Amino acid sequence: MKEQIKFGMIGGGVMGEALLSRLVAQNIYQPQEILVSEPLESRRDFLAKQYNINVTNHNQLVASATESAILLAIKPQIFSQVVPDLVNAMAGKDEKPLIISILAGTTLQKLETAFSGFPVVRVMPNTPAIVGAGISAIAPGKLVEPSHLDLAKNILQAVGQVLEVPESMMDAVTGLSGSGPAYVALIVEALADGGVYAGLPRAIASQLALQTVLGTARLIEETGSHPAQLKDQVTSPGGTTIAGVAQLENHGLRAALINAVKAATERSKELGS
After folding, report:
1. pTM here?
2. 202: which residues sit within 8 A by CB, 6+ positions away?
3. Each residue of 209-263: pLDDT tens digit?
4. Is the separation of the CB atoms in 94 and 32 below 8 Å?
5. H helices of 99-250, where?
6. Is 173 part of any domain?
7. Domain extent at residue 154
8. Do 162 and 121 reside in the same domain of the chain?
9. Which of 32, 108, 177, 258 has its CA 20 to 30 A from that of 214?
10. b/e sequence 65-96, b meaning 16+ C-beta within 10 Å
């Protein structure tokens, strides 16, 4: 390959594309500096046409050609099938590229054992990355230098905020922010359903539900208020809000969300075992 490949990606799925699209849009990498490996021909054709990047169906080519950073964006279940070819293709490289893994539940120990001698970071992004509003937790491996960490953060900041955490917290991060968009989507859907039940047209109920969640999140972020404080501000004695809050408490909303995060955390641990 004639081009100088600085950023390689194994797997061209939704999360990988989210990062890819914003790396190109923000000129962090030029399209000709990116190489993506993807088994589906239709997906390769789409990514090449949409972003003008290099594509291949050979993981080994990405591994051998990439100079700076390689993003692993595959299912954790196929990790053991994919890694040997990557390692073989990188054997003898003078400069070892940074390995960035977004595989749920896949530990640094497992990654560093597989990519012996390579700097590795473990990352948990979330799907709001698609619109640049994500948050990624990052845990650096033993061989990661400050320059590697800066590189990883620069890449991940293309899709939102970056938070460095100890690896011991990564499964909990997965349970909260990694899986959390699904919980919030369910809440938005349920609020809209409630509006329809109360007599609103579906389109109006959906718009009200969505903007209420968006606006509330923004209000909490910009004011720095504790969520309980905001709740108290809109909950007047004997009013409508306290009637609704009482129903949420009666039906265990808090416990349901806490248990959802706990269950997703435990599943992340299982995937890594």
Report:
1. 0.87
2. 192, 196
3. 999 999 999 999 999 999 999 999 999 999 999 999 999 999 999 999 999 999 9
4. no
5. 108-114, 146-156, 170-173, 180-197, 202-223, 227-233, 240-250
6. no
7. 5-167
8. yes
9. 258
10. bbebbbbbbbebeebeebbeebbebbeeeeee
